[in-house]
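HUMAN: Would you supply a protein with fold tokens?

ASSISTANT:
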Amino acid sequence: MRRLQRRGPSRRAFLAASAAAVLTAACGEVAPSSVTVSARPYWEPALTVATDSLDVVRTLELNIRELAAGSQTPEQFAAAAQARFEAIGALGQALVPLSPPPSAAAAHGHLTTAVDALVEIIPTLRAYEELEEPERLVHVITLQQRARGAIGAFAEAVGPGRTKNWLLATIVDLGEFQFDVVRVPMLAVLVGPFDSEIQARARIGQRLPTLRLSRVFRRWVEAGRFPNPDEADAAAREWQLDGFATRIEDVVDLSFTLADVRAPSAGRWTERAWLARTDFDITALAASDQAELVVAIARNGAVAAFGPDGAGRWMRDLRIPLSRAAVSGNGELMAAHGFDLLLLDSDGQPIWRSPARPDNQLLEDVVFAPGAEWLLVRSTNASSVGHVFAFGRSGQLWGPTQPYISAADVALNPDTGTVAVASSNRGENQIVLITPAGNLDQRFGVDGELHRVLFTRSGEHTIAVTDQSSQIFDSARGDLVWRIGYPSSAAVRMPRNDTIVLAGPNGLGAFSLTGTELWQIPGLAVERLLATNDFVIAQTSERTLVVVRSDGTRLGQLVTSSEIRAVAAAPAANLLLTANAERTIEAWQLPEVEPAAG
């Protein structure tokens, strides 16, 4: 048994140039009184290295806690740590050119110890990947502990002042826990031999959630680990009955336990509120307004549901191909759809006896009416010509829409239940309004090819979004009342008000209904756009999301540990959800917004 004692990581400090004299004095150096101090050749970059090191330490400790809680496997822990290799490498590069003055010699020695410990994590994890020796992970934890202790010693050596107090306080914020590691003998059932992973995948198929040729037992794939010979023999026989050769080998697992000595303080919004894992590749996410129900789906028909804290609620294999999912605002119903549509309750039980297939086209969107009494479905095809249907708890209510109506997008008037369809068909661009009973209400022409349609909160106005402009119409009369001349490829309406947020070649901008620009972030290239009550979320790359407050001030940037496969938001809870390439759902709790003064 090995006992490790930890405390935890901190916030990153940005040391502004205007604080030069204050920080220099706080760090024990006396600033000359005859000249203005405009540069700090050692302390500013050293403090930046220290705070960046604390960021890495904090991330590692979060993953250590998840490893002990069982929400991460050792392989997932290693992958999460590997995601910080770039940041660790930057620490080493930033440390090399520093030349400490004599008064900083002791502090610099501690800082060097911290960075060296973090840098040593890189070859340690690479050796774990190659040799599959679990003790290497224990050494990673030991190195993380060493780095944290050295940063604490660096803070103590800084000298009295606000800088020292801040560093020590952020270390205390990490909390403290005892971490126990126990070696557990296990029996691994191996299947093979195979000439390559391609051959192994071709033969084994989907029988294993993950498949990799063993680094230790060359040409063999590990099919499972078992604590006793009877279970291992039984598992091996099942593979043998299917025509596979097997072998059983002694291996060692590690059992991790954690006991909190002092709980960590509340983390920043860039630290996960919770994490949940699936055994399938996630292709779509959906959530209710308050995150009472969070749903993940896979193309093969697998569905997993989670509660507001990430706890698993149920899993189903719907046995049909799926592309997307939708959850009602109150979390009582969910829809899973591909070419077929299934309606399930919050416990995963079907509302209909069998799936519905309204036409033979891909069902692109599902929109629930307030109260989840009925829902809209939009289909599409390769020519972007689709139909709109309405379904209730007893089945289809109306549809399809007439052939002259294409369906680029749909929206639902929250007040009247009127349906708006964005239609661009053979050069004719129009918004078509349909009554809740499925009858034509009215239609009005739009300048430009449509890609979005939105209603205002009251439903009094309909917003038609084209590549070149957004046009606002009176919903009752069909009159054009305002125009926003801002090219866009994505658009959302803020849930609390009628602010329209547009993303396009000019960047990200927010506008009032009358076309007044409220704020803009020029040049921001946006791939996907979401909104919660108080925030706008823009995905800008495969791993990066930029979060902006509703007033246009930037909250910050979130970089996920691996490629984002799906995103969703629980608007009323200000909760952002991402699904990554590691089959993991991560929840990011955006901070509470301070009420306006007065």
About this structure: Residues 337 and 387 are 15 Å apart (CA to CA).
